Every structure is written in C-alpha cells, then in structure tokens.
Amino acid sequence: MRTNVYIDGFNLYYGSVRKTPFKWLDIAALCTTLLPSCQINRIRYFTAHVRALQHDPQAPVRQDVYLRALKTIPNLTIHKGHFAPRPSVFPQFPLAYLNPTKPPLVVQVLRTEEKGSDVNLATYLLVDCFDNDFDEAVVISNDSDLASPIEKVISQFGKVVGVINPHSRKGLSGKLIRVASFHIRTINRKVLATCQFPSTLTDSQGTFTKPATW
C-alpha cells in the first residue's frame, strides 16, 4: 500500500530526541524502520523556524543545517508554521506570599508557542486523502487535536491511518488510540541511534556536516 507519513516535527523533537545525542535524525530511515512493510510514498514534515535567544544564539543555524539535511530526502517536503512569543503572568512556584491573606506573588514569563503545525498537518492529511494520494497514512505525533481529522479520514473515506507516539516518557493520547487504525506506543532509543544521517552530506549547494554541538 502507498503510505504517506505526516510528522509533527516539534512533537518528535521534544518527545524523542531533545535530550539525546540523536538529533541528526534521518527521517526516511526512521519511517522505513518503524514501517518495514510499507511503501513510503510521501513524507510531510511540519515545523517552524526557531528564534535566536541570548543563551543560545546558534539555535537557528543548527536548525537550518538539519532542515538542509532533511531536504536531501527525495520524497520529503517541509511545511513551516511560526512561533508566537507571548509575555504572560503566572503565580510563582513554589507559591510565595508577602501577605498570606492575599494572592501569591506573580512573575512574568515569556511563553513561546508554535503555531500552525497541527493545522497544517491536519489540512494536508485531509487534502491528500481527497486527492487519493495514499492508501494508508501514518501520523507521528501525540497531539490529541489531530484525533478528529484522523477519524474523518478513516470513517468517511475508508483509509487506514496509524499513529506513532514520539514521546518516550508519555503515553499515547487516549483519543488518538481510540480513533487510529493502529498505533505504535513509542520510538525506542535503539531505533533513533540506528536512524542517523552520515556526519557529512552533499546537496546541490555542496558538502555540509552535522553541527559539532547541539
């Protein structure tokens, strides 16, 4: 069966690779390893550009190198959302009081929310279904907001849609389990270690290498 894979990039990053040495992840190898009996027709990778921060000014540079590596995969397309920084005020934790009869002290924090990836993923899943671009789809995400479009693709179009949980320490969403045709509960470290790009890659612009630090 023709299989399309839809990847929530930040869900995969924060769930599987953030605190590991496996950030140079070859997505094509990951898909074929997790889905050995499938004919991978198309891979769609959903992400957003990160911002340079004072403590990590090279983060966008490293991300650009990784996206360049992903572009060497012939059947992979990158779809970009955006980050929306939003200052917010929250109670300090542990709760601190100047006066115990009044509410606790609050602090201002900068919340950086990624916008667009879940909507983009759902949109392309539905559009590709309408276009009969796949027989089977696999979504790599633990975002329960994707349960509804997955359910519609299965119930109204008779497609098979599986879900792979990218979180190693967090169980797969019950909503996703209930609607999916099948699911894989986690991606283990041995798979991540096996599915790495070579340290040096070549594309139309020339040769480039894995970032020395991450």
Strand residue percentage:
25-35%
Query: Rounded to an integer, what's the Rg over CA atoms?
Result: 19 Å
For the record, the count of structural domains works out to: 2
| Poorly predicted sequence stretches spanning 5 or more consecutive residues | none
**Envelope shape:** globular
Alpha plus pi helix count: 7
Series of H and E elements: EHHEHEEEHEHEHEHEE
CATH architecture of the largest domain: 3-Layer(aba) Sandwich
Describe the structure.
By secondary structure, the chain is of the alpha/beta class. It has two domains: 174 residues, Rossmann fold (3-Layer(aba) Sandwich); 29 residues, no CATH class. The protein contains seven helices and ten strands. The chain has a six-stranded parallel beta sheet with strand order 3-2-1-6-7-8, with helices on both faces. Strands 4-5 form a two-stranded antiparallel sheet. Helix 4 packs parallel to helix 5. The radius of gyration is 19 Å and the shape is globular.
Question: Can you describe this structure in just a few lines?
Answer:
The protein has 214 residues and is an alpha/beta fold. It has helices at residues 9-17, 27-34, 59-70, 117-130, 147-157, 174-179, 189-194; strands spanning 2-8, 39-47, 76-80, 82-91, 106-115, 136-140, 160-164, 182-184, 200-203, 206-209.
